[in-house]
Amino acid sequence: MGKGDIKSKKGKINRGTFGASRPKKKQNKATKKEKTTSAS
Length: 40
Description:
Blueprint: H1 9-15, H2 29-39
């Protein structure tokens, strides 16, 4: 369980990949709209 372990969180961070042990944070539709409207 370290940097070389693909299935661990540390291994996912090291490789820069996502999966069950390191899920991607999904962006809310409400927050996405706020960012686009505030920019213009």
